[in-house]
Amino acid sequence: MKELNKEEFKSEVEDYVKVLFRKSIKEADDQQIFQAVAYAVKDFIVDQWMATHRTYEEKDVKTVYYLSMEFLMGRALGNIIINLKGNQAIKEAIEELGLNLDVIEDQEPDAALGNGGLGRLAACFLDSLSTLGYAAYGCGIRYKYGMFKQVIENGYQIEKPDDWLKYGNPFEIKRPEYAVEVKFGGYVSIKKDEETGRNKFVQENYQSVLAVPYDLPVVGYNNNVVNTLRIWDAEAIDTFNLDSFDKGDYQKAVEQQNLARTICEVLYPNDNHMAGKELRLKQQYFFVSASVQRAVMKYMEKHDDIRKIHEKVCFQLNDTHPTVAVAELMRILVDEYNIEWDEAWHITNKTCAYTNHTIMSEALEKWPLELFSRLLPRIYQIIEEINRRFVLDIQRAYPDDYGKVERMAIIYDGQVKMAHLAIAAGFSVNGVARLHTEILKNQELKDFYQMMPEKFNNKTNGITQRRFLLHGNPLLADFVTKKIGDDWITDLKHIDELSVYTDDEMSRKEFMNIKYQNKVRLAKYIKEHNGIEVNPRSIFDVQVKRLHEYKRQLLNILHVMYLYNELKKNPDKEFYPRTFIFGAKASAGYHRAKSIIKLINSVADVVNNDKSIDGKIKVVFIENYRVSNAEIIFAAADVSEQISTASKEASGTGNMKFMLNGAVTLGTMDGANVEIVEEVGKENAFIFGLSSDEVIAYEHNGQYNPRDIYNTDGDIRAVLTQLVDGTYSSNLDEFRDIYNSLLDGQGGRPDMYFILKDFRSYAEAQERVSAAYADTAKWAKMAMLNTAKCGKFSSDRTIEEYAQEIWHLEKVKVEVTT
Ligand code: 26V
């Protein structure tokens, strides 16, 4: 690794402040200082970036293209500094300039080009790919506006645009030389090819945009490797070109300009809900076509046989969002390289792999044929042909089972089913946690698994310990390193060596003291941002994640209401003080989710201001939960709420971040919780609720009626009544919809997420939490064991599995020569 020279770095920062802003360090404001520091850091890594790509070319290594609509990167500066191991030198340099690194890091807006789990997973994967030395591109969209900023006004969520590029992005490099054209609409005509005499399919009368890439560095840990996150922006193709005017086609020129302007405007803020919007499909094809075209061009610069592209290129589809990639690759092979269908199909099969991230049926992508064929006429033709052949395969495999085609066809009921296309076209289909993969194989995708079992595999998610421990929790990171050395930074399995210290009282005290300091840090953040005073000696019980009914924030807050009632009834009851902390964004159009946010804030108002309970319960809703404040929140948590309805949460990754930071899981047997409990032992977690099998059985037999619980359980009835009797809102209709959803439901399915069913079991688990926390030594041991046993959940482990079992990549060592 190149050493960072402090003096050089200092003068670079001074130079950048001067060149960029015509100012001295003293005159510049914090944002300008951030920009200057960021440019100086980028200068430092650019040699490694170039060396990395030179090495890849020389060794001609296979590359994975991780195609994703979302990359939730968060802030770059602090993470890059950490991965350069430059923390000490840069910190000192900055202090010697009279500045403060924390303040500077705080100026950087989060790169929030994602919604939640799926986007953050992509970001963790890129970090691991670089750290492990695998050749990879992240391919996505350079949204002008990322995930909205959440402001809470009067307890309601208000969305504000996230103008993250306002001051420019110092880390990005525009690469106009790699721009490509992407075509939409028009029609397909058949022309005779002069050379070959064969029919050619040509798209005519289309609209097109220019896809222009911007590259962002992804720095590996202490290894000279810098991979690239390539995000595409759309520009108008030669503005009002003369040709158009000659034909009098002024209208078309304007339309093309508008198309370019709208495509990359904004990230769709829905998580788990398919809306079927035309612009979304445009976004998908836009970045996929650009990425696949570039990957093919790059491959052909060094190779002469397109038929072997699978030897050097793999496209990993992050959910079905980029699935048009398979048809785009077919188009390029068949239309541009004149390859016969069967051969093109085999090449495509060997090049594409698909990851499924949810079984929620609302999220499954299905596009109306009318829309699809109008927007992407040639791609649609190709999918029709893929479907025609796939249906024949199904009929051949199951000649007597007519239901199979109905359930498995790619085109059916007037829709294109993207998951079916991804499964038929790829060589690998993976789920993201063991339980999730089993549910895919045995329930959701049963027919596909029966027909093509060899494609199915599991890759349990992971997280990067570099961002979520080394950067987010420096005190604990230092403690761990002091005890066991620093191997854990690149090989998290080593963290198990901490286990022996759980029996050492001094170590436990040190560990809990660090937790306390992190709680003080979060308490300060809460005071500054919410104006609420919280007691860092109370139990910090945290649920941070997107707001969705299946994640059951409602169960959590109903339980708070219940506890509050208990305390009011019985003020002298022994009760360990608790701070219930929430953070969650709701999709702008998801009304019930927004009501749940309002409910949390209304309960907070009442409970926090009730002197009679002596501050024993506090409720805090942290505004604008995002990657940067997540780092602070995980570090300070005692209890990790992972309470989704069993079978619904594919994996979860927040659960792993909490575990790493020594929080104990309070959860259902869902997603990766199952594997967390397996690692840490069930005596070191608090598990409750229905199993996924039980949930699935109820869903099939319809035998669950929440009214039975309402009628027999007075405490639950009291809590539900408080939703509509004015206890938490003078507007009696404010929470009526929530109330109805639990008792009446829509379409005859009340309490779809089994909140009342699991309530008692949850409350009882919460009592176990309180009792365990009161036993300080016991809790310290549990918490510390959670950190010690989380080795499996590094994204380095996940990426090694993808690299070995799906992508077949080789590791690269990078030497910097300049
Ligand atoms: C789905 C959709 C549906 C169409 C409209 C826009 C849109 C945007 C995002 C999504 C993603 C939903 C899937 C998702 O985020 N799944 C989460 O993936 C995590 C990483 O694998 C996993 O830990 C979570 O359990 C899972 O919910």
UniProtKB/TrEMBL annotation:
The keyword Metal-binding does not apply. InterPro entries: Glycg_phsphrylas (IPR011833), Glyco_trans_35 (IPR000811), Pyridoxal_P_attach_site (IPR035090). It is an enzyme of class 2 (transferase). It catalyses: [(1->4)-alpha-D-glucosyl](n) + phosphate = [(1->4)-alpha-D-glucosyl](n-1) + alpha-D-glucose 1-phosphate. Its EC number is 2.4.1.1. Pfam families: Phosphorylase. Keywords: Carbohydrate metabolism, Glycosyltransferase, Pyridoxal phosphate, Transferase. SUPFAM superfamilies: UDP-Glycosyltransferase/glycogen phosphorylase. Its cofactor is pyridoxal 5'-phosphate. PANTHER family: GLYCOGEN PHOSPHORYLASE (PTHR11468), GLYCOGEN PHOSPHORYLASE, LIVER FORM (PTHR11468:SF3). Belongs to the glycogen phosphorylase family. Allosteric enzyme that catalyzes the rate-limiting step in glycogen catabolism, the phosphorolytic cleavage of glycogen to produce glucose-1-phosphate, and plays a central role in maintaining cellular and organismal glucose homeostasis. Phosphorylase is an important allosteric enzyme in carbohydrate metabolism. Enzymes from different sources differ in their regulatory mechanisms and in their natural substrates. However, all known phosphorylases share catalytic and structural properties. This is Alpha-1,4 glucan phosphorylase. It comes from Jutongia hominis.
